[in-house]
Amino acid sequence: MSEELERWTQATVYPDMWADPDDDPRENTGPSPDGELATLQDFLTGYRLTLRMKCGGLDAEQLARRSVPPSTMSLLGLVRHLAETERDWRNWIGDETPLAKLYGARDADFDDAVAEQSVVDAAYRDLEREQEATDAALAAHPDLGERVGKDKIAIRELMVHRIEEYARHCGHADLLRERVDGRVGQ
After folding, report:
1. What is the mean pLDDT of residues 163-174?
2. 151: exposed, middle or buried (C-beta count within 10 Å: 0-12, 13-18, 19+)?
3. Domain-by-domain residue ranges, the chain?
4. pLDDT of residue 27
5. Are strands 147-148 and 153-154 parallel, antiparallel or unpaired?
6. Would you give the DSSP letter of residue 154?
7. In which region does residue 156 sit, left (phi positive, over 0), alpha (psi from -120 to 50) or beta (all else)?
8. Distances (CA, A) of 151 to 114, 141, 146, 178
9. What are the pLDDT digits (tens) for 84-96?
10. Which class in CATH covers the domain with range 35-181?
11. pLDDT above 80: residue 28
């Protein structure tokens, strides 16, 4: 990557933002949620939207581009990784036989994130399906102090870990996206 990209944003109100407040689906003009569980779910929803926004408007090649060498990370790889991670969290909840990996071998979520539209489409389907399944599994455990699974992890800890995982990878997505096409913003 020797080409110098010009930094840009679609925001006009605050030039360091991804989008103007009126155009940002994460903007909530109402009161913040009541209760700990609703607050955790609200933060998770915000980070999930951020990841999708960071990937928005890119083609398969751009999504699969490893724009920060020598890292194997790409935006598409992050989508696949988070689908894999959502599935793994369900393994923490239950005592059953662990679910198989979505993409097979270790690091296949990143290594096999290739610039094909069918791979991109499948990754988004996988992410949505796995998010819905994990959300449904956790909905059966509304007590944040309840301990589940063979390791007896608290639901609260699992929820916080999910937020941390998305937040960390949204930070990666910031850098990856800027290297792909120069777009910046929180």
Report:
1. 97
2. exposed
3. 35-181
4. 77
5. antiparallel
6. E
7. alpha
8. 35, 16, 12, 39
9. 999 999 999 988 8
10. mainly alpha
11. no
